[in-house]
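Late entry, evening session. Most of the bench is empty. Finally got around to the prediction I had been postponing all week. Sequence below, unchanged from the version circulated by S.P.
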Amino acid sequence: MKTEKSKTQNMLYRKFLALIVVLFFVIFCGCSKNQVKLSDDVVAQANGKSLTRADIRAVVPVGTKDGDSIEMANRFIEAWVTNEIILQKALRNISENDETITKMVEDYRNALVVQKYLVNLIAQKTGKKPGEEDIAAWYQKNSSRFILDKCLIQGVYIAVPQSAPNIMQAQQWAKTGRSADLQKLQEYAIKYSISYDDFRNVWVPLPEMLSKMSSAIVPSDEFARKNNFYVTSAGGTTYILRIFSSIPSGQPAPKSYIEPTIIEMIMKERKEAFLAKFKKEILDKAIKDKNVLYHEAYKK
């Protein structure tokens, strides 16, 4: 079935491209008797340059609705033709030997070549992900840079319809916090919950959790310190939150909470250190090999 569907889509797509060719010549070329006949693969031509069906396929994905495809292709064709006409006019008015443009092109090309080389080199030399020891060492040295601006909590959260059975029992299971009771709460959640989250091993911002509960409570450090169990109801739903651990705002963020950021920072520092070392070494070698010379007025 998939093969037949694919064949049908491809056939329709080929028909669509043929229609685009016809539409283009009707709209843009008119019916001049002096019109030059183009090959079947060419959709448009401007100043000797050709736009082909393959170019259209690259910008109009297979499966796009017919109406959208035609509009997308028409816009692309018109933009291409217009750009080619303007380009040719510009070339006639600006000398190809214009030193400013020549230098700009050369500088841009050189920058691209250097950038591509360095990106590939850095990926080869520093692409390895930091290990746990590296992450721990970096965190110990830099934890003071990541001070919490909100309270974090670990716990269990469940939301159930107020029509669900045994809600009081579910509250009791959450409140005790015992492993056996939490297992029962999980089984209850599978059957009746709208939402359930056991985040005892993950730090979550308190404001984020209270927001999920549609709570009007202000998410303060004091709330987390004084309430390890909280229940509220709104819109026909009962929300239950059991807090097992909390870290108040103003304290360093725990390592696990910022680990993705730590990895990113380590990788950034590695890249910068490698790049600085590489540039120094390659310059020193070039000077030593006399591939780089400085005027005596400039002391390196």
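Two things to note before I forget:
DSSP finds ten helices and six strands in the chain.
Residues 2-93 form one domain.
Will write this up properly tomorrow.
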